[in-house]
Amino acid sequence: MQVQVGLLARALRAAGCDVAVAAGPGPIDVDVDVVRLPSLSARTTGAFAAALRRAAAEVAPDVVHGHGLRLAPFLAAAGRRRAVVTCHGIDPARARGGATVARLTGVAVASCGQGPRRVLGSVGLRSRVLDNAVPPMPAPTGRADVLARFELPTADLLVVSPARLTEQKDPVTLVRALAHARIATAILLGGGPLLPEVERTVAREGLEGRVRVVGWLDDAREVLASADVCALASRWEGQPTVVLEAMAASVAVAATACTGTVDTVVDAESGLLAPVGDAVTLGARLARLADPELRGRLTSTGLLTAQAHAPAVVAAAHLDAYERLLAGRWLDPPLP
User: Fold this and answer.
1) How far is CA 59 from CA 19, 20, 112, 311, in A?
2) Could you tell me the pTM of the whole model?
C-alpha cells in the first residue's frame, strides 16, 4: 500500500497537483511534503483522529484520500464531503464488518480493481474502481547471476514469488506445486509467519536444492525481473502489484484464479491460472511455461496490461474521480 501511495503522490505532482502525504512512523518513499501522524492502534485512535484533523486543517486540501478501509471513520471526521478511501483488498470472508463501518461514515469508497469492488458490492457497499499503478521496472540482475547468488542449479525455469509467507498468500500450496513442476527452481521472497511451515514443506517434498526461501531483499524487483515466471498461490488479492510488475518486466505469470488476480490476469492470454488451493494444476501450469514461445505470447499481452497501469494513466483516472467527488457525482456514470 505504501508503494502505491508513493507512486500516486509522485504522479499527481507530475500532473501539476499540490500533494501532501500524511503517514505514521516509519520510512516512506515519496518526494512530496510528509505530515507525520501517530501510529494507529486500538489505544491511539483518539490521538490519530486529532492529528489527522489538524493536518487536514493546516494543509486545507481539496480532497483527502485515505488508503485502507479502516481509515473511513477518521476521514469522515476530517471532512466527509471531500474524502475518499481506497480498499486495497479485503478477505471476502471478513468483508461485511469493514464495509458496514465504511458505509455508515458516508465517505466515498474506491476499490483497487474489479475484484475488491465485487466483494464490497456483495455486502452492500458500492465503490468506484481506481487501479493500482506500476512503475517502470529496473534492469534485471541476470538469470545466471541470480542462480549463482542463491546457489540454485540450472533448470528450465527460474520461478520467483515475491510474497509474504501468510495464510492469504498460501505459500505451502506454491511449494507443493513446485514439487509437481520438477523442471523449475524457485526463490520465495518475503519471509513471514508461515516460514517454519514452508521450510518443512520444502524439506518434505525434497526440494532443498531447488527452492530457496529468503526474507525481503532491497533488490527484490531486480530479482523478479530476472525470472522466467512470477508465481502466486494466493487465496485472495486486491489488485496484485507484483503481478503488474512481472508483466512490466516481461516475466510470465502463473497464479491462482483468486479474487483480484483473476481480474488482472486473463487465463491463457496474459498468464496461466489454476484453481485456488490446487497444487497439482498450478504445478502443471508452471511446467507449461517451460515453452519459451508460450511465455513470449503471454508476456507480450501482459506488457500491454502493465502499460495501462502506468503512473500517469492512473493519476489521470484519480483526478477525474476527484472532480466527480467534489461535484457530488462519485458513482456517476452508473457502474455495472
Assistant:
1) 9, 8, 26, 24
2) 0.94
